[in-house]
């Protein structure tokens, strides 16, 4: 069986690592990786292949940054050609980026079966490009691999139910379990940034709804600055956010701004943080994997079970004081224990299901 996997953005490289490792020990399977080039800086792409031992992509489409339509359209045409060359049994995509939608749509139109990993997530905010990407991808998928029961229920309400919907847990948890020890052993990031275990706030910001709204970006930067008056705040900054903050002339003050970091350094920073303040989907979950309280800088989250379990608090980032107060009030506040994202074998389950044919 041949799987053609389309990836292109930072979180997809990390998610792809789980399946790539299982494919490597499954002789009856081959995986052909296609990198769309949506993320291309070395610290947004290459570093993850090196650290996570992901094979080099067989195809690098080199699409790069563009408007949504132009980027997705270019990917669609290029992926179509790869599908025609490779004739895979399955095309597999992760999450909700433009690379996800382009891969799924190209395959569906060529009648190649689509497997969607991290299916069923919903923010119920159609202004988010990710919400459109995930709804459309779910609706053209032949196998839906779902991380939580909540996501299964979302799909059911849209008429997607049956034996092709599989609750398998979260592949990011597989990767976290594999890499957590290595990060503690190998990463020197706490020393390099002069941070003490449990004595700093880690933040990431990249969502369009925050970076493209001047008032929100200003509130986030000023809120983090307020926190940094009493506790170090470290901010590995996504290139989109750096560009927008520079254009707006924002000053990060005492916030320790660093370029995006590799995965081992990132999870070491997460493990050691007193609190994580983020608008990232993946980072919200990783905060929970390492049992660090999280404040999510958004109006809503797809990962509602984290809020219900007391690990995550939402704050609409429109006011710096409220943001800083929310972060301060959540310091040291643990949530309930539990296992919200499966048992760390999601990738194995996905491959077994694809091979077993339990799909539409
Ligand atoms: C994309 C995804 C988002 C995901 C995020 C993960 C879409 C619509 N959005 O958002 O769902 O959470 O990736 O990080 O697919 N840039 C660089 N170097 C790079 C990559 C990007 O400088 O290697 C800059 C460019 O100015 C680019 C901007 O970042 O225009 C945004 O990149 P893009 O991939 O369009 O969106 P992300 O915000 O990264
Ligand atoms: N990440 C990383 N370095 C960074 C920021 C994030 O390795 O500087 C990792 C993070 O640990 C998580 C993933 O990237 O595994 C999340 O990706 P991102 O926040 O870009 O996207 P999202 O999850 O919101 O789609």
UniProtKB/TrEMBL annotation:
Residues 27-354 form the UDP-N-acetylglucosamine 2-epimerase domain. Pfam families: Epimerase_2 (PF02350). GO terms for molecular function: isomerase activity. Keywords: Isomerase. InterPro entries: UDP_GlcNAc_Epimerase_2_dom, WecB-like. NCBIfam families: wecB. Belongs to the UDP-N-acetylglucosamine 2-epimerase family. This is UDP-N-acetylglucosamine 2-epimerase. It comes from Deinococcus radiopugnans.
């Amino acid at each position: 069986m041949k799987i053609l996997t389309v990836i292109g953005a930072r979180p997809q490289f990390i998610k792809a690592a789980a399946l790539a490792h299982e494919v490597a020990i499954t002789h009856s399977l081959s995986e052909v990786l296609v990198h769309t080039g949506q993320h291309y800086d070395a610290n947004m792409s290459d570093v993850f292949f090196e650290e996570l031992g992901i094979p080099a992509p067989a195809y690098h489409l080199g699409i790069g940054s563009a408007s949504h339509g132009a980027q997705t359209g270019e990917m669609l045409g290029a992926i179509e050609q790869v599908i025609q060359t490779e004739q895979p049994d399955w095309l597999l995509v992760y999450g909700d980026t433009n690379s996800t939608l382009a891969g799924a749509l190209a395959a569906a139109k060529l009648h190649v079966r689509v497997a969607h990993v991290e299916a069923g997530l919903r923010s119920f905010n159609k202004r988010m490009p990710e919400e459109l990407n995930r709804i459309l991808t779910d609706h053209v998928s032949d196998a839906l691999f779902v991380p939580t029961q909540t996501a299964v229920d979302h799909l059911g309400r849209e008429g997607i139910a049956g034996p092709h919907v599989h609750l398998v847990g979260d592949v990011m948890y597989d990767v976290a379990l594999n890499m957590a020890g290595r990060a503690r052993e190998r990463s020197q990031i706490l020393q390099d940034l002069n941070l003490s275990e449990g004595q700093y706030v880690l933040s990431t910001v990249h969502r369009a709804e925050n970076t493209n709204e001047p008032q929100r970006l200003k509130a986030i930067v000023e809120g983090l600055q307020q926190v940094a008056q009493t506790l170090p705040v470290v901010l590995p900054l996504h290139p989109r956010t750096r560009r927008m903050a520079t254009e707006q002339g924002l000053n990060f003050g005492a916030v320790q701004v660093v370029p995006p970091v590799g995965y081992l350094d990132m999870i070491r920073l997460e493990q050691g943080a007193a609190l994580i303040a983020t608008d990232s989907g993946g980072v919200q979950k990783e905060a929970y994997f390492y049992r660090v309280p999280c404040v999510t800088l958004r109006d809503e989250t797809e990962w509602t079970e984290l809020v219900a379990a007391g690990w995550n608090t939402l704050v609409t980032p429109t006011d710096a004081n409220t943001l800083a107060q929310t972060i301060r009030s959540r310091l040291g506040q643990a949530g309930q224990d539990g296992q919200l994202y499966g048992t760390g074998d999601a990738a194995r389950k996905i491959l077994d299901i694809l091979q077993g044919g339990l799909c539409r």
